[in-house]
User: What shape does this take?
Amino acid sequence: MDMAKNPFTHALATGDKQVGLWVTLSSAFVAEITAPAGYDWALIDMEHSPNDYMSVLGQLQAFAASTTTAIVRPEWNDPVIVKRLLDLGVPGLLFPMIQTVEEAQKAIAATRYPPNGMRGVSGSTRANKFGRVTDYLARVEAETTVLLQLETAAAVGRAVEIGTLDGVSGIFFGPADIAADIGHLGQPMHPDVWALIRPAAQALIAKGVPVGTLVMNPEFAAELLNEGFTFVACASDSGLLAKASDAALAAVKQKLA
Assistant: This one.
């Protein structure tokens, strides 16, 4: 059995616009609700959600039946966490809070087997269909999406240096943490935040490096994609549920006599 291609990895490499959804509710049932919507990619978040390995597994299984590629953000740039997620069959990873070239190299190495990295070898995992995928070891590095998240002004200043490292599939800008870092806590849409992100993004795009982000505004998401961003998440499952819940209640109350 041959390893299947990762459509998200190849879409980034060819510059195909990819619209994403942030998945935070830590539920395979919720993932199954969102999977048929048709997003190109979904981010299962372990950093700011109560996910564990088993809840991630259930969500991967839900998305596997759809055309959406589900990638995972681990809680930290830790090779043990990365090893376990890759063995679970995670098709891609978004590494949080990458500050330096050295941290980026550590993240990349965690996704690769020796001699190219430090990932431990297991012969029978969900990732290789329990030993049935005969070319897994040879092809997994080329198929795995490796995204690095820049979340401070200092990291954004190193964007090209980090983004052009071998093994990086794309650079993700975190506007909420960048905002906090430059004195605008809670204001990810502040003009100063995007005055930092946009030039760095264009410098990466000029180097052929895919760039992405998360914004909770579909119109702005489309604007960024039209500017050359390759992968942008435009909403979160929890945010959509909260807004819809509030809107339904408000709609009824407004019509009460």
User: Anything to note?
Assistant: The radius of gyration is 18 Å. The chain has a mean pLDDT of 98. The beta strands are 18-23, 41-45, 69-73, 92-95, 145-150, 170-173, 211-214, 231-236. The first strand starts at residue 18 and ends at 23.
